[in-house]
Amino acid sequence: PNQKPKRLIDTLPEEGRLRAVQLASQIDPKNHQSITLYGTEAQSKLTQFSHSMLDHVKNTNVGEIGDILNDLMKKLEQVDPEELNPEKRGFFARVFGKVSRSVNEILSKYQKTGAQIDRITVKLDHCKNTLISDNALLEKLYEKNKEYFLALNIYIAAGELKLEELYTKTIPEMKKKAEESDDQMLYQEVSDMVQFAERLEKRIHDLKLSRQITIQTAPQIRLIQNTNQQLVEKIQSSIMTAIPLWKNQIAIALTLIRQKKAVAAQRQVSQTTNDLLLK
């Protein structure tokens, strides 16, 4: 409990500490506008940054990518390779249906669905490239946000340093001088300095609120980036894995059907040849 809390200026890097000391020395109690303008440069940049973040979120429609992926899954389910397997067709289909007609129907259906899937693939590839470029932009925004956080920290540390000087040195010295001289004008100067210190304290509080925005923005940017990256991986998996697997299954099923027809024809030839030999 007796340990003094660590000052913000002590946590800054060497360059930041020097900048904070320089800023603290530039705060002029005699200049009433110095408090009003103090730290506004960093805050205005943060405001512009917030606008750019909002524009980015408004222009990015991640839900559309989800719709495209769902559409792709529906298309893949429209043509089932198992439909080409005679053993797995229904009893009446086996008795009354014709395998050749079934194969042609499935093949026609496959060609139509395949063309639709190819168009969806082009869309997904475009979405993937957009997400990758979005993540690159978000990385720049993250670094900008970090810069504003560091800049606000320097302003806050400088303000706290000046405030400490006012409360521990400047105001006590002015009070002592006023009490010794009993000069009413000196008492007024003390009052003015106390009011200046209070205004500076409020200004530091405002800067801390702005800094809190940057603290909250950092994980939000990372959350958007992680979601984008997961979508990129899902798209990659669809294009590189799901679609080729589906096409391979269709190709294998068609090949097996044609092989069965060829084997049946070969058996028929063998049977006819054997019958002729017996005769």
Describe the structure.
Helix 4 runs antiparallel to helix 7. With 279 residues, the chain is mostly helical. The protein has helices at 8-11, 14-26, 33-37, 40-59, 62-78, 91-96, 99-181, 184-278. 87% of the residues lie in helices and 0% in strands. Mean pLDDT is 80; it is low at 91-99. The longest helix is centred in the C-terminal third of the chain and has 95 residues, at 184-278. It is built from eight helices and no strands. It is rod-shaped, with a radius of gyration of 38 Å.
Topology order in helix (H) and strand (E) letters: HHHHHHHH
Q: What overall geometry do the principal axes of the alpha carbons give?
A: rod-shaped
| Oligomer kind | single chain
Number of strands: 0
The main β sheet shows up as:
none
Q: What's the alpha carbon Rg, rounded to whole Å?
A: 38 Å
> Which structural class do the helices and strands define?
mainly alpha
Query: Count the helices. How many?
Result: 8
**Distance, first to last CA:** 115 Å
The portion of residues assigned to helices is over 70%
Spans with pLDDT under 50 lasting ≥5 residues?
91-99
Beta content comes to under 5%
The averaged pLDDT comes out at 80
Present the secondary structure layout.
Blueprint: H1 8-11, H2 14-26, H3 33-37, H4 40-59, H5 62-78, H6 91-96, H7 99-181, H8 184-278
Helix pairs in contact: 2-7, 4-7, 5-7, 5-8, 7-8
In short:
This protein is an all-alpha fold.
Describe this protein with a few key phrases.
mainly alpha; 279 residues
